[in-house]
Structures are given as C-alpha cells and as structure tokens.
Design goal:
The strands form seven sheets. This protein has a six-stranded mixed sheet. The chain has a five-stranded parallel sheet with strand order 9-16-10-11-12. Strands 4-5-6 form a three-stranded antiparallel sheet, with no helix packed on it. Helix 1 packs parallel to helix 10 (305-323). It has twelve helices and 24 strands. The chain has helices at 15-26, 53-57, 62-65, 69-73, 124-127, 134-149, 164-177, 198-210, 255-258, 305-323, 359-372, 376-395; strands spanning 7-11, 36-41, 79-82, 84-89, 94-98, 102-104, 107-110, 114-115, 128-130, 155-160, 181-186, 214-216, 220-224, 228-233, 236-241, 244-247, 252-253, 270-271, 277-278, 281-286, 291-292, 338-341, 347-351, 354-358. Helices cover 33% and strands 26% of the residues. The chain is globular.
C-alpha cells in the first residue's frame, strides 16, 4: 500500500495563513512526500489590510488590495475552501465548517486573526462602524456617500482609538471630506500611537494638527447612540452630536479558538513554543493575532501584519521539516520599521536607519507594500497599474 500524502489544513487566509500556504507550495518536496495543502477562509478574497484606507480615498481599487484567492492560488496546487470555521476537534484532527465539509488534517495552522470587539460599549454594535475587512470598507463608503450627498453643512465624525488605524483613518477621511469634515479622535490613554517611534508619533501629531482634527485624550467612550456619542473625561460625561462613529480599538480571539483545550493566555491567545507549535500539540502551529508567542530570544512577538508575514516563513519551514525529519527552527522576529499613511499622498516611515515623512515617505511606503503583495503575478499587475494610472489620468485631463 502506498502511504497517503499528508494533509496540511491552514485556517485563515490573512498574512500569516496565505503566505504559509504559498511558502509550503514552494518548498523542495520529494514527489512522494508532497502534501495536500488546504487553505480555509470565510471570505473569497485576501485583504492587504495596511492599504485598506486607500479604498476610501479612491487612491486604490479593490482588485489591487483584495485579490480573490482563486486568482492568487491558481497553478500553486493549493486547494481553497471558502467557509466559516465552526469547530476544531484536535483529538480527531478534524475541522468543522458551518454549512460545509468536514476537513481532516495531519498538520494544522491556526491563523484566523482576530475580531473587533464592539459589544464592550452600549450602542457600539448597532451604531459604530468597524474597519477591518473589505465589507467594512464598503459599508463605511456607503455611509460616507450618504452623508456627502446630504445638505448638512458639516459632517461630524468620531473615531474611537488613537492607534495606527484611528490616526490613518482620521487623516485620510479629513482629506476626503475637506472643509465639511469635523473630526475627533478619542483615545483612552494620554497620547496617540503609544508604541510608535517618536519620529512617527511627531509626524502624525503634525498631520492631525494641520487638518484641525480634535484629540480627546484620557477619554473613555461611555455609550453610542444613533446620532451622538457619550464620553467620560475626568469623571464627567459629555454627550456630543455625531453623524458617524468609527471603531478601531481592540482585537479579540474568535470563540472557536478560545474553546480549544490548549494552553492560552488571559486574552484567549494560544501559547506557542518558539517553533510556533502549540504546547503538547506539535502538529498544530499558531501565528498572527491569535498566538501568544515568544521568539528565540524570549521576546514577545507583536500581533502585527509584519510579524505574521515573518512567522509564515518559519511555520512553512517547520511543517516541511517535521514531515521530512529535519530539525525545526525557532522563530526570530526582526523589527523592520513602521510606516503610516497620513492623508492623501503623505506618510511617515521609520526603519532600517531611515526616517522619512511627506510625499517621499508615501512613495517608499507604496514600494515596500508592493514588494509585500502576494504572488509575483499580482505584484506585476498592481505595479504596472500604479505606473500607468498617473499617465492615463494626465492624458485624459
């Protein structure tokens, strides 16, 4: 009897999951050892989330930052399965999909990302707009279009969270709405971008000031209603009229992950070894937002796209190593810097000895993200479009 090839099931098609799948398909497998690779995601599209803001300003189009998996995975041998993961049986080594097939596995990669927790403030689930997926961007775009077409003199926008997402959204939307926009960023701590390098924080502060965006620091959201938001500052509550509330705070591990009988931290993230394997389950790898990972030097790995991208390389290599009886490698995280968009045609960048802001940083950020796009074919299509689009717009002016 010939032995069945191993089946590797990867749950979640974000940075960690998709790049693990692509890397696995490229590794030097012996023909008899080549595994079956199955990628599962609830959406039919990959989302390059750091560029999601550009959809709202028309700087980019959906196909550029959210290509379909079927397109990305063609000619790779990877099987894509669209479905919502409803349960994982780690004893039977089976994944259950809601309204879909049951998938058995030999090796499992958990890369399901996180969810935006809206139920922690009264009214947020009903009235706040999260910003994590393409569907979120479409929903927000529709709301903005309705507001722009109204005869209201001012469009009042409250953005909850003064982290990367909140600051980038505030600057992009302030540029889109121009003089009609009235923006406030609500941050519970005493400064924006707490974990950001000083240079980037200062550049962001200048961009916020230049756009007249109001900062509510040391302020907590008490509740959200259809056309108002109640804020608590120094034990006093103010209710402020708003037309739109965007929620950018927090990430929460999905219930299907929290229910797994494995070692987890207080936030429900799965604890892993430095090889990215789950404790007591060497056949399961966890990466990205849902993993509590210390790298080879004992440093906490941040839950960022940059870290997930790097973890994917190690996860793929270690799965290959475990199936071909080779030694596994401990993950070594390298901080390569930080980039932020600060409005249309402007950004800030710190990393690898460089500090840039303004239009030059915007170009550098675009080029860095072009390099990070999945598959060579998609990079070439997007890169060509970025070169050709300004020329076409100039010709047809």
């Amino acid at each position: 009897m010939t032995q069945q090839p191993a089946r590797i099931c990867i749950l979640g098609g974000g940075f960690g999951g998709l790049h693990t799948a692509l890397r696995l398909s490229q590794l030097p497998w012996e023909p008899s050892q080549k595994p079956e690779i199955v990628l599962v995601d609830y959406s039919d599209r990959f989302v390059f989330s750091p560029l999601l803001y550009e959809l709202l300003t028309g700087e980019l189009q959906t196909w550029e930052i959210a290509p379909p998996y079927q397109e990305l995975l063609s000619n790779t041998g990877i099987r894509f399965c669209q479905g919502f993961v409803s349960g994982i049986d780690i004893d039977e080594r089976k994944v259950h999909l809601q309204d879909g097939p049951e998938i058995s596995y030999d090796q499992l990669v958990l890369a399901l990302g996180g969810e935006t927790p809206l139920d922690i403030v009264p009214g947020a689930t009903s009235y706040a707009y999260p910003f994590r997926t393409v569907a979120d961007a479409y929903r927000l775009e529709e709301r903005l279009r309705v507001l722009e077409e109204s005869d209201a003199d001012k469009i009042r926008v409250a953005i909850v969270g003064g982290g990367y997402s909140g600051v980038e959204l505030a600057c992009k939307l302030a540029d889109r709405l121009g003089q009609r926009g009235r923006f406030r960023v609500i941050e519970i701590s005493d400064q924006i971008l707490r974990t950001s390098p000083d240079f980037n924080r200062e550049a962001a502060s200048k961009a916020i000031d230049a756009r007249g965006i109001f900062l509510d620091l040391e302020t907590k959201v008490e509740s959200i209603a259809q056309d108002s938001i109640s804020l608590e500052y120094k034990n006093q509550i103010d209710t402020i009229p708003v037309d739109l509330v965007i929620w950018t705070v927090g990430t929460r591990v999905s219930p299907v992950v929290r229910n797994l009988p494995v070692k987890q931290n207080q936030r429900g993230q799965i604890s892993t070894k430095s090889t990215l394997q789950v404790h007591e389950h060497p056949e399961i790898f966890a990466l990205g937002d849902l993993a509590d990972c210390l790298d080879a030097e004992g440093k906490q790995v941040p839950a960022t796209a940059q870290a997930a991208f790097q973890q994917a390389d190690y996860a793929a290599w270690n799965i290959w190593a475990s199936l071909t009886n080779r030694p596994l490698l401990p993950f070594r995280y390298q901080f390569l810097g930080e980039m932020m968009a600060l409005g249309i045609d402007s950004a800030t960048l710190t990393g690898l000895g460089f500090k840039l802001e303004g239009s030059l940083a915007y170009v550098a950020r675009r080029l860095a993200y072009l390099y990070r796009l999945p598959t060579l074919e998609h990079k070439l299509k997007v890169g060509f479009n970025w070169l050709a689009r300004p020329l076409i717009e100039t010709l047809y002016k």
